[in-house]
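User: I'm curious whether this sequence folds into something compact or stays loose and floppy. Could you predict its structure so I can see for myself?
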Amino acid sequence: MTLFVREHATKNAQFRDLLLASFAQYNPNELKAIYAKQVKALIKVARGKYGLIDSSGAKYISKEISPMLSLAERYLSQGNHKSAFFICTAIMDELISALLCADDREGVLGNAIYVAYNTLSAITCEGPSEAIRRQILKYCFTSFDKRTFAGWDWHIGLLQLAACILDTEGEVEEFFKRVNSIPESDEYEIKEVQKIKYCILLEKKGTEVAQKYLEQNLDNPSFREVAIQDALDQKDYEKATALANDGIEQDSGYPGLITNWYEWLLKIAESQKDTERIILYARHLLLNDSRPSLDYYEILRKTVPPEEWTDFVEAIIQEAMERKPYYGVNFAASVFVREEWWSRLLDLVKKECNLDQLAKYEKSLAKHYPNELADLYAERIIEYVESHIGRNYYRTACIYIRRMIKPGARDKADEVISQLRQTHYSRRALMEELDNV
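Assistant: Here's the prediction. I'll summarize afterward.
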């Protein structure tokens, strides 16, 4: 057996490297460089003529590095934090450099770094020995200082790992020194690191110091949310409202954040059972939030007096149509569906909707106006083919023809097919696609 392993290791460099790595913990001189050398060798093989790593090269590296990642996880399970640390950091450092000249469109190299980072994170959570804790802390600080992973989640992630294993007052100060040295221009990084600093202050310095830091940095949206929730918990609605309104003013250039502050205003109004302001904020959010996290329409339905509801809805529809015509059409259609105003939905679709929008409301219209729906599909499909040339467009047209057939409009679909064949007989690709309907 020994002879077989020796011969195989002599002939196969990759097998030899993996073998050495698997028993590296028994080497008193084990170093991160041993594992870095293996990763570099894989990257060298994957590089093309001009030193670039194409998609297949990235897959090759990912496949060949997988045993190393598995080895690190095995070492972790065995409590061998030292070897696991060396493997993970070697992979992270070498692959982040490779990404600069790699086609990683499928994310296989990035995924390998994530796996290595997650294993490193698991080491910190297991309470490693003092020596390994210091090594991890040094690695996190050094990587952050060199900005090795700048532009990637791991840049801030390593600082988060460092925060988890801070022990001495000196280490805490070293951490804060890095936080305070971030350029003001890097707004995102500052705000992310502020959140980490707040957690450290809370743990190491106490609630009073952490709260003071939070209130000094309310331009951080996360801190402002904490402050608003604290005010709500204390039923200080005036303070909570002021904080949310200040957020709207401060973040005027960030629509997503503005929506967030209006949601807080709605939440505050609901806590106060202030009907007038619930309607005010829910109405605003209904008209302005393109990706609602709450059903503002239902909130309004429950709040607006029933005798005023129809006029209220009509006013909202009119405003939506005037402010954002395209959005207004979809908004009005959604209202008609919720209110079951089917004839108004049909009239709107006839005037405003293209094929995609027609398909969106197909289910509602098919139940109440199947013949009219078939006629609309026929009209839109013919118009679509008139203005689009190319097989992909023809396939799209045929998809909609099949949608006509599904609810039972086969005869109408055959009429459309016949008309398209007569009008566009010279479009061979269209003829072929129609054959498949």
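Summary: Residues 55-78 form the longest helix (24 residues). Confidence is low (pLDDT under 50) at residues 1-6.
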